[in-house]
Amino acid sequence: MRREPMVSTxxxxxxxxxxxxxEPGELQIHRRPLPVPAPGQALLQMEATGVSRAExxxxxxxxxxxxxxPFVPGFDVVGRVVAVGPATDPGLVGRRYAAITETGxxxxxxxxxxxxxxxxxxxxxxxxxxxxxxxxxxxxxxxxRIAVVAPxxxxxxxxxxxxxxxxxxxxxxxxxxxxIAIAPAHEHARLRHxxxxxxxxxxxxxxxxxxxxxxxxxxxxxxHVGGERLVKCWSLVGRGGTLVLYFSLxxxxxxxxxxxxAAWDTARLRLWSLMPNGRRARAFALCGGRLRSxxxxxxxxxxxxxxxxxxxQGVLKPRIAARFPxxxxxxxxxxxxxxxxxxxxxxxxxx
Length: 351
What we know:
Shape: globular
Distance between the termini: 18 Å
Number of helices: 9
Largest sheet: 7 strands, mixed
Number of strands: 15
Number of domains: 2
CATH superfamily of the largest domain: NAD(P)-binding Rossmann-like Domain
Strand content: 25-35%
Oligomer: single chain
Mean pLDDT: 91
Order of helices and strands: EEEHEEEEHEHEHEHEHEHEHEHE
Helix content: 25-40%
Radius of gyration: 20 Å
Low-confidence stretches: 249-257
């Protein structure tokens, strides 16, 4: 990505543009006139955004539902409102908020729908909020709105070393659950410290070891991988329990978008839920419904508020791998795609 002096003005916005299926170093810096919010919209000045699996898939052109190239990536953002459109509450100006955008947040300023904004206390670090917010809100909803778990029950979390897995572990333990966390061995010390029971994801007898710990099955199993691994996860669900498939990687792999594998996974989930065995199978995506339905917006506001409160209390512990200025987003993306990175790579404004 070409390095240029980052000039801060009140009339221009700096955007990181993904022009096509390119290497991280081929991201482009664009400068455009500052956008004007329409009625019901707010102009947000970015304080923190980040690199997630969504952007990594978009770079390869394999993230289902991504816009046509070129576009500005960025799944979520924390920032301060600097202007609002007509017929929009002027009291928003000067206050700090978070929003899920799906795309567009790799930008110094961006326009968002005012009804999607969640207040963020000034006492919280913007990078910490960015690190946990979408992961933890998704985890909260999967635990309490989809699986509806109760204290004392057992759950299984696959990919417990990732962002969503870590949030499920921390929120699960806070809810009084027994958490069996599947992750690489180097994550086990942290998981034990958080009160989970870790299992090595590379163990050849992984399913058998999990079943030994779950003689009656799990109240909920959370996985992000479809295909045959989904079948193994289903075998761990106990009577009355729920399998939750979130952000299925069978739809975003390194080869193709995989619509047929996704359709097959969906068919499996529906079939399993119809079977008279007292178990349920559900698919989940945080932006299912695009936050446009009234129920989704209510969930987002309520659950984000809960998550931010838990972050302030220290229940949620953000794992920040590194912070990069917006002008070095190419380096941020390169690090985020490294197999050795642990934690969220965060993008912050240029000084």
